[in-house]
Amino acid sequence: DVKVTQSSRYLVKRTGEKVFLECVQDMDHENMFWYRQDPGLGLRLIYFSYDVKMKEKGDIPEGYSVSREKKERFSLILESASTNQTSMYLCASKPWDSYEQYFGPGTRLTVT
Amino acid sequence: GESVGLHLPTLSVQEGDNSIINCAYSNSASDYFIWYKQESGKGPQFIIDIRSNMDKRQGQRVTVLLNKTVKHLSLQIAATQPGDSAVYFCAEWDLNAGNMLTFGGGTRLMVKP
Questions:
Q1: pLDDT above 70 covers what percent of chain B?
Q2: Biggest alpha carbon–alpha carbon distance for chain A
Q3: Which helix (H) or strand (E) holds B90?
Q4: How many whole angstroms separate alpha carbon B80 and alpha carbon B65?
Q5: Which of A97, B87, B93, B109 has the fewest CB within 10 Å, making it most exposed?
Q6: Does B33 touch chain A (CB under 8 A)?
Q7: Are A92 and A98 in contact (CB under 8 A)?
């Protein structure tokens, strides 16, 4: 059974804190993605990675960075959290030769 | 006042009725179209897909229709059940546009018992 896990379901952080969101997949997928999801705006791509140590900016990368040191793990980093980064964050993975993405359960981040 | 784009379209149906969820897409070169279902507190899950050279595809209780002329996609759910209550997203995939999915805004389906 395919599985994408995210380190936290709910997270509350203060403005200015550094925040790490972790995502792990056990399907040996090459591609991994980070999205944020806000009501009425759908899923917006923050960053994605084609392979280990490779990363590409998505549609809204400002204020975020990522790290992919191992194939199964893709981390999203908020260098200095701000209130407008309060959102649901979704991680996904897929094999390089398929379009179907498998999603994790999401992390609901609140920045106060 | 409320801002445009901050609210999810909602479809409310009676249990047992058929549901039709619509989606307009923008890229006429997309190769595949996918429907995802997202239940409360969970990540999106794949429901059904359709290739761009098809007009219709059926799954178990679900049918996807593709009208390329007007760039419109629909998801039909037969005999809607309470467990179908969720947010439904369409997504399009263009192989020549970075091997990524582009998602629609989503529609919330509420099933009344």
A1: 92
A2: 41
A3: strand B86-93
A4: 17
A5: A97
A6: no
A7: no
What's the mean pLDDT when you consider all of chain B?
89
pLDDT by residue (tens digit) across A59-68?
A: 999 999 999 9
pLDDT over 90 percentage in chain B: 69
Residue B104: C-alpha distances to residues A88, A106, A107, B73 (Å): 16, 18, 20, 11
Q: What is the predicted pLDDT for the residue at B7? A: 63
Between A42 and B58, the higher pLDDT residue: B58
Question: Under a CB-based contact definition with an 8 Å cutoff, are residues A60 and A45 in contact?
Answer: yes
Shortest Cα–Cα distance, A58 to chain B (Å): 10
Task: Give Cβ neighbours of residue B38 (< 8 Å, ≥ 6 apart).
Answer: B44, B45, B86, B87, B88, B89, B106
pLDDT confidence of residue A1: 67
pLDDT of B3 > 60? The answer is no
Residue B21 CA: distances (Å) to CA of A26, B46, B113: 33, 15, 19
User: A106 contacts in B (CB within 8 Å)?
Assistant: 41-43
Q: Which residues pair with B104 in a beta bridge?
A: none
* A49 → chain B, closest CA residue: B100
